[in-house]
Amino acid sequence: MANKFFDIIQSDLSKLEDALEEAVASPVETITDIGIHLIHAGGKRLRPAMFFLAAHCSKDFKLERAMPLAVALELIHMASLVHDDVLDSAMTRRGEATANAKWGNQLAILAGDYLFAKAFALVAEHGYSDRVQLQLSRLLTDLSAGELIQNKEIYKASCDIDEYYERIAMKTANFLAISCQLGGDVANLSEEEIQALYDYGYSVGMAFQLTDDLLDITGDEDTIGKPAGNDILQGIVTLPTIKALKSSPDKDKLLSIVTDSNMTRDMLHEAVEIVRASDGIEYTQQKVDEFLEQAKTVLPESIPEDIRTAYSMGADFISDRKF
Amino acid sequence: MANKFFDIIQSDLSKLEDALEEAVASPVETITDIGIHLIHAGGKRLRPAMFFLAAHCSKDFKLERAMPLAVALELIHMASLVHDDVLDSAMTRRGEATANAKWGNQLAILAGDYLFAKAFALVAEHGYSDRVQLQLSRLLTDLSAGELIQNKEIYKASCDIDEYYERIAMKTANFLAISCQLGGDVANLSEEEIQALYDYGYSVGMAFQLTDDLLDITGDEDTIGKPAGNDILQGIVTLPTIKALKSSPDKDKLLSIVTDSNMTRDMLHEAVEIVRASDGIEYTQQKVDEFLEQAKTVLPESIPEDIRTAYSMGADFISDRKF
Fold first, then answer.
1. Between chain A and chain B, how many beta carbons pairs sit less than 8 Å apart?
2. A10-128 homologous superfamily
3. Which of B69, B106, B150 best probes binding to A when mutated, by most A CB atoms within 10 angstroms?
4. Partner-chain contact A106 B130, CB within 8 Å
5. Percent of chain A with pLDDT over 90
6. Whose CA is closest to B74, among B29, B139, B131, B157?
7. pTM for the complete prediction?
């Protein structure tokens, strides 16, 4: 991701790759193999990036102090994707075979468990504060609870917008918020600054997930690496679809498709077309813009100018993202 | 489990049930439901029991200090069983429906993740030492690595006895060892005493797992709640079978069955009979006795007499167990 947003932290992110490989190295060969596969399958490293930026607010930035937490954040993210792919029976992610496709569900579930545990082990080994441990574990309880709410409601077309926001907050916004907050912790910022960074991460996270949900409808398979409407296929309705289910002239047809766990590709295609033609797209895009505006507004004046600019550009990057 | 072993900690264990229910209470109803189901499905609470006993070595025992760790240990155990049952597609455990049978694999996987995270959250909330956090996270990396080794080798009849011991050490012995060790930590025992309690837990844990593996062959469905030979059916060879694969006159027949992922009930029955008739049973029982003898030997003289007696009875209890 060549973007000026990352200039300040380019070297950290590049060293992160080595640190991740070190973290997954295990006497148990399969663990190392799965770990390396996941690392090489790529990813935006958004959570470590958000974290490193906040950590750089201190002039006294020490990479060796920041790195274990950056690794822990990415390991938790990787582990949750591994379990996600088992849940969805996904065979590819970002064009690469998923862990379950390559090693089977059983080893993928266990590898995910291992990576969660390894994240906590890393943090414990490096003696961070109880608050750091607490935030990291709450992040994971929220993450799994958010996924659980989502999976419980599949093919039910739950259209409560507040519940939708709550679910994406638990799944994504909270994770980015805590990534920023932990960076602020490491940089010894004031409570107010840390809270502001948390709020920034939260808004950016909401925008990020909304964009993800939007791209799932508007993107094409070549760009997003999965067929358009994949969420609908999995029985999950997101904001564009929820809006379409309320306002589209074809809402009855749409409802009958999204609640059908045996939907065919043709039905899926029709559902995607209905959502695309509805005001759900514009409505969601507007919400993305509102969250990003909000994110920029809460950035504290007191943090270094270059970090503030980088965070601001990070928000712009999310609004422009196409994958 | 009415046994004098538990007298000292009977009241702790009874309060543990409430604390567990409190720990799984969540605004997300499904999490609470799954949690309560798992708690009510029972279990020996062996890890909290081992932990509480060690914690009672201090005259200054404070239940409110010990309880969060006891809950964390049992939550990690419960979560690993939930994932185990998904891996094995098990429909019942201890005569009760498994979480995957009742809520499906997806929610069961996520509920397991939630419980792991909740265990770490509990510990972080109560401000234990980094060492406690570290032991708990290492326990979980070992546990998942041990399960992973086991699952990687299914239907391969891996007969290396050292590898078998390593696997059950990671899965079980280490867990009981750390349960004892953490109790010693809470009781502020000396490093030597804590190490001795760790060693006791380790040996007892090895004996416990060996007994489990033995009962899987010698037990009947009414007593152990699953058909005899369930491990073999899952493609897992344990010490009695490993020994039989080396020494039984029918070892070729046995090998052909345990490496067949399509084995029928009749084939399984035949395999179980071959192992039962082999010297694998006596050999394993002898190893159980050796580990239990070892466990009793390492118990430190310096800890209170009643705790030493209780631990010693705990070892006897394992050697006598029939389920």
1. 139
2. Farnesyl Diphosphate Synthase (1.10.600.10)
3. B106
4. no
5. 82
6. B139
7. 0.94
Residues A218, A283: Cα–Cα separation, whole Å: 13
3-state SS record for B1-49 = CCCHHHHHHHHHHHHHHHHHHHHHCCCCHHHHHHHHHHHHCCCCCHHHH
Q: How far is B83 from chain A (nearest CA, A)?
A: 8
Distance CA B285, CA B279 (A): 10
Q: At B302, is the secondary structure helix, strand, or coil?
A: coil
Among A176, A178, A157, A185, which Cα is nearest to A259's? A157
More confident residue, B245 or A127: B245
Q: Are A63 and A38 in contact (CB under 8 A)?
A: no
The DSSP annotation for A212-232 comes to HHHHHHH--HHHHSS-TTHHH
Superfamily name and number for A144-323: Farnesyl Diphosphate Synthase (1.10.600.10)
Which tens digit of pLDDT belongs to each residue from A91-121? 988 888 999 999 999 999 999 999 999 999 9
Inter-chain CB proximity A117 and B134 less than 8 Å: no
Multiple choice CATH, B11-128, 2.160.20.10, 3.40.228.10, 3.90.800.10, 1.10.600.10:
1.10.600.10
Q: B26 to chain A: which residues are within 8 Å by CB?
A: 145
Can you give the residue ranges of every domain in chain B? Answer: 11-128, 155-323
| Whole-number Å distance between alpha carbons of A244 and A249 | 9
| Whether ipTM exceeds 0.95 | no
Q: Apex CA B83: angle with CA A32 and CA B78, to 5°?
A: 120
- Give domain B155-323's CATH architecture: Orthogonal Bundle (1.10)
Chain B contacts in chain A segment 112-151 (CB below 8 A): 112-114, 116-118, 120-121, 123-125, 127, 130, 133-134, 136-138, 140-141, 143-145, 147-149, 151
CA B248, CA A186: separation in Å to the nearest integer?
Answer: 61
Q: A151-168 pLDDT, tens per residue?
A: 888 899 888 999 999 999
Q: Is the dihedral of CA A132, A135, A138, A142 positive or negative?
A: negative
CA distance B310 to B308: 5
Which tokens is A264 given? 């065919």
Are both B11-128 and B155-323 of the same fold?
Answer: yes
